[in-house]
Structures are given as structure tokens and as C-alpha cells.
């Protein structure tokens, strides 16, 4: 069967996919699942808080989200929770009665442990906790995932297959999820700031903003690709650019004086610490 993205595959999720909280991240995931033919538009039951007032649609398949979480969860075999952490508890209360061990719940909500789902839902419902990131919108995301008490390796495989559609996937011990939230969940924002600042340097030296942004972005992409493809330590790769008494070492001196390295380490630490608190406070990742 051919889907909007033009990719030909069999449907992966046969019995329907509920996406509860189809906002930024939920919308990105829906687009990707459709593009890769993992589900058809008819199999997606998306919800937001208020649907009818705006009549908004998601994706080229024109999916109009509803607001009945229970109805959506009832129709689906896989329930993807893309809500902000504080909304998870109340929505679980709405859908609890239609959950069963035969359904799979996958949550991308930061901060909320699988044990919280298990105790709030009460039945032996399989739960997978996942942390994707926004580069998923171009198929270059990374999603870390871990399974709850009642999830089997087969459930993990289902989740992996879904998130493989938006980039790389890794399975981790759940104790690392907050650190991952602070690194790869928040990381795109940190990198956009670095990218923008590099481009500003080019603008300061007389390049057009368009050219400077292209140079900075492709340089960041290329450097990341070299790390992934060679497996070499970033410090060694840095040394290959840094010729004695050349220009790069002068730039590095500025970075060290500006404490870029320690600032980035602290940014990840702070973001990870904040990730632990989100399910108790009025904010999100
Ligand atoms: N954004 C990221 O980079 C990222 C990355 C990884 C994980 N996450 C996680 O993904 C989750 C969502 O983040 P987001 O950035 O996508 O936020 P978002 O754009 O605000 O999406 C949240 C969605 O939940 C909907 N919602 C709120 N209450 C609801 C309810 N009772 N029933 C149904 N839908 C409801 C909202 O609807 P309305 O629009 O009507 O309010 C909104 O569409 C968070 O837990 C976050 O930690 C985000």
C-alpha cells in the first residue's frame, strides 16, 4: 500500500494507534509513522485538549484530532502518550478502564517513570517509556527507551520499530532517562544556540547570514557524522583540525576562556535535574 510519503510497506500497527496529546512531538511522530507506512491515517486516533474550536489538522493526511482520550484508547492496540508530564495522571484516569494487558502504552512524557503508570493504571498493562527528540522531524532523531514491569522484549520491539522510523533508537536502563532527557531531549536547543552563534561569528566577519548559517549548519552536521561514522573520540578529531600555531588553536583558546566546555556540561546537568521535577511542576521539557 502507498502512503502520503510514497513509501511502500505493510502496516506495522494493525489494530490502531492512539496518540494522546498530539502537539509538537506527537505531531512529528504521526507524520513520520505515516510517511513510513507504519500506520494508515484511518488507524490513527489523535487527541488534544480542545479539538473542535480550532479544527486543526495534523499532517498531509489531514488528521483532525478529537478530545475523547477514552474513545481513542479504546479503539487502539498501541497508545502513545505525548502529553506534558502533569497531564499524564488525569488522562490515565480517563483511559484506565479501557486499558488491558493486551494493549501497549508507550509514553514520551519526560519525567514520568513506568512505575507511575503501573500504579496509576492498576492492571498489568505493558508500558514503554521513550525519550525522542525534535530532529525526528527529518528522520535524524534519537530515541532512548526502557520497558516497564509488564512489558516484554516483543513490546520493546514494537516500540523500537515505531521510533526507528524517526531516527536511531537505543534501549537503556530507566535510571538514565532523566540524563537522556537533559542531553538528547534538550540538546537540540543547545546546539541551535551554538549554531546560531557560529553563524553570527561569520556575519561579524562579513558573510551574509544565509551563507553563514549554511556553513555553520553543514559543519555541525558533518562533524557529528564523522564522530558517528568513524567512532573516533571527538578530542582526537579536534586535534586533526588544530595545526600548531594555526588559526583553530586561537579560536579554541577563546572557547576555553569563555568556559564553553564547562558551560555545556552544566547545561546538561541542570536540564537533567529539572527533568526529574517535571511531573510535579507546571512545565515541560
Ligand atoms: N518537544 C520536545 O522536544 C520533546 C522531546 C521529547 C519528549 N517530549 C515530551 O513530549 C511531551 C509533549 O511535549 P510537546 O513539546 O509536544 O508539548 P505540546 O506541543 O504542548 O503537546 C502537548 C499536547 O497535549 C495536549 N493535551 C493537553 N491536555 C490534554 C488532555 N487532557 N487530553 C488530550 N490532549 C491533551 C495539548 O493540547 P492543546 O494543544 O489543546 O493544549 C497539546 O497538543 C512532554 O511530556 C515532553 O516532555 C517533548
Structure commentary:
By secondary structure, this protein is an alpha/beta fold. The protein folds into 2 domains: 157 residues, NAD(P)-binding Rossmann-like Domain (Rossmann fold, 3-Layer(aba) Sandwich), CATH 3.40.50.720; 93 residues, ProC C-terminal domain-like (ProC C-terminal domain-like fold), CATH 1.10.3730. It contains 11 helices and 7 strands. Strands 2-1-3-4-5-6-7 form a 7-stranded mixed β-sheet, with helices on both faces. α6 packs across α11. The longest helix is centred in the last third of the chain and has 22 residues. It is elongated and about 70 Å long. The two termini are 36 Å apart. The protein binds NADP nicotinamide-adenine-dinucleotide phosphate.
Features:
ProC C-terminal domain-like fold, 285 residues, disordered N terminus, binds NADP nicotinamide-adenine-dinucleotide phosphate
In whole angstroms, the N-to-C terminal distance is 36 Å
The overall average pLDDT, rounded, is: 91
Element order: H for helix, E for strand: EHEHEHEHEEHEHHHHHH
Structural domain tally: 2
Strand content: 5-15%
**Rg, Å, rounded:** 21 Å
The biggest sheet, with number of strands, parallel, antiparallel or mixed sense and barrel status, is: 7 strands, mixed
What ions, cofactors and ligands are bound?
NADP nicotinamide-adenine-dinucleotide phosphate
Stretches where pLDDT is under 50 for at least 5 consecutive residues are 1-9
Based on secondary structure, the structural category is alpha/beta
Rough shape? elongated
CATH topology of the largest domain: Rossmann fold
Number of strands: 7
> What is the number of helical segments per DSSP (H or I, 4+ residues)?
11
Tell me what the CATH architecture of the largest domain is: 3-Layer(aba) Sandwich
Helix fraction by DSSP (H/I, runs of at least 4): 40-55%
The top level CATH class name of the largest domain: Alpha Beta
Amino acid at each position: 500500500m502507498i502512503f502520503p510519503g510514497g513509501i511502500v510497506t505493510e502496516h506495522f500497527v494493525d489494530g490502531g494507534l492512539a496518540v494522546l496529546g498530539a502537539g509538537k512531538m506527537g505531531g512529528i511522530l504521526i507524520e513520520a509513522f505515516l510517511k513510513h507506512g507504519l500506520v494508515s491515517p484511518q488507524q490513527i486516533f489523535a487527541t488534544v485538549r480542545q479539538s473542535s474550536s480550532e479544527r486543526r489538522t495534523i499532517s498531509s493526511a489531514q488528521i483532525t484530532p478529537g478530545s475523547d482520550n477514552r474513545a481513542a484508547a479504546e479503539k487502539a492496540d498501541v497508545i502513545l502518550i505525548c502529553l506534558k508530564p502533569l497531564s499524564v495522571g488525569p488522562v490515565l484516569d480517563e483511559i484506565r478502564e479501557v486499558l488491558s494487558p493486551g494493549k501497549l502504552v508507550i509514553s514520551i512524557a519526560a519525567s514520568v517513570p513506568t512505575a507511575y503508570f503501573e500504579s496509576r493504571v492498576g492492571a498489568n498493562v505493558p508500558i514503554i517509556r521513550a525519550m525522542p527528540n525534535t530532529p525526528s522531524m527529518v528522520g535524524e532523531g534519537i530515541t532512548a527507551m526502557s520497558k516497564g514491569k509488564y512489558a516484554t522484549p516483543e513490546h520493546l520491539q514494537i516500540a523500537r520499530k515505531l521510533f526507528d522510523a524517526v531516527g536511531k533508537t537505543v534501549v537503556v536502563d530507566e535510571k538514565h532517562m532523566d540524563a537522556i532527557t537533559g542531553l538528547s531531549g534538550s540538546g537540540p536547543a543547545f546546539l541551535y544556540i551554538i549554531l546560531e552563534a557560529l553563524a553570527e561569528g561569520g556575519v561579524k566577519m562579513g558573510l551574509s547570514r544565509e551563507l553563514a548559517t549554511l556553513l555553520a549548519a553543514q559543519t555541525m552536521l558533518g562533524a557529528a557524522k564523522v564522530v558517528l561514522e568513524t567512532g573516533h573520540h571527538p578530542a582526537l578529531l579536534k586535534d586533526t583540525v588544530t595545526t600548531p600555531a594555526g588559526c583553530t588553536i586561537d579560536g579554541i583558546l577563546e572557547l576555553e576562556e569563555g568556559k564553553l566546555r564547562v558551560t555545556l556540561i552544566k547545561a546538561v546537568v541542570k536540564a537533567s535535574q529539572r527533568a526529574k521535577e517535571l511531573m510535579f511542576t507546571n512545565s515541560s521539557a
